[in-house]
Design brief:
Blueprint (H helix, E strand, L loop, with lengths): L2 H13 L2 H22 L7 H12 L4 H13 L7 E9 L3 E9 L2 H14 L3 E2 L9 E10 L5 H11 L3 E5 L2 E6 L4 H10 L6 E8 L5 E2 L3 H16 L3 E6 L1 E2 L2 H9 L1
Parallel strand pairs: 8-10
Antiparallel strand pairs: 1-2, 1-3, 2-9, 4-6, 4-7, 5-6
Length: 253
């Protein structure tokens, strides 16, 4: 796995803490609501909602909470209008960052994101300038202690996964976005716990930017965490690659 993927794993472990769980559920609920609002409450015919439900289940969101969010979104009568906004950003060193937000007031969210951008030496880019460096992929991480490699590979590939690799203590499963739900549900049906389970933007081959030092990697991760901590931000993606040596120092700090 790349340094990008390894940092995502560390981030998810931090996010699993009880103090973060409420924020995670809030973001998942917003995605469930807008998915149901845009495409209806029928999971079979709404692929975006199907993915959102799979992610919510992987995060152990209670079934009744999932159902309430879907009902609320499909009803569209909560008086709240959510708008999706994407910010494409070039961070120092030419690192590409995609920030996806969901807000009821873009006039509030955009200046706040721009403030972070300006204070940390970044630049807002034109639509497509950064996203062209990424591809959308289904991405699932499973701890090696949860299941044997051969059994997991057979299960994942049969469900529609494209590839499975391993690094350190994890198996990494990749799929096309349209096959993600089937793969995630196949693992869920076997009660296989996942560390990460989502459709995400991943850097295309040859587009990653290597962190030159521990200090630069730390500053960049602090920037990413500022975006992630913003209440309206749903997801943050980047193409910084961090070496095993620097990652080990970051993990220890």
């Amino acid at each position: 796995m790349s340094g990008h993927s390894k940092w995502s794993t560390i981030k998810h472990k931090k996010g699993a803490a009880d103090a973060k769980r409420g924020k995670i559920f809030n973001r998942l609920s917003r995605e469930l609501m807008i998915s149901a609002r845009l495409g209806g409450a029928d999971i079979a015919s709404n692929s975006r909602l199907r993915i959102a439900v799979s992610r919510a289940r992987a995060a152990n969101m209670p079934k009744d909470t999932i159902e309430r969010a879907i009902t609320k979104g499909a009803g569209g009568d909560d008086g709240q209008t959510l708008e999706e906004v994407r910010y494409e950003i070039f961070a120092p060193g030419g690192v590409g960052v995609i920030v996806e937000a969901m807000t009821d007031k873009k006039a509030r969210t955009t200046p706040e994101i721009k403030s972070i951008v300006n204070k940390h030496g970044c630049n807002l880019a034109e639509p497509g300038a950064v996203s062209r460096l990424f591809q959308s992929r289904g991405y699932i991480l499973v701890e090696k202690t949860a299941i044997g490699e051969e059994e997991l590979m057979d299960l994942a590939l049969e469900a529609g996964a494209e590839d499975m690799t391993q690094e350190d203590a994890y198996f990494e499963i990749l799929s096309e976005p349209e096959n993600f739900s089937e793969v995630a549900e196949a693992l869920s049906a076997k009660s296989i716990p996942t560390e990460v389970s989502e459709v995400r933007y991943m850097p295309m081959d040859g587009t990653e930017v290597e962190a030159e030092s521990l200090e630069k990697a730390r500053k960049f991760i602090q920037l990413i965490e500022l975006f992630e901590d913003h209440d309206d931000v749903q997801e943050v993606y980047h193409n910084m690659s961090i070496s095993d040596e620097i990652m080990a120092e970051l993990s220890a700090s």
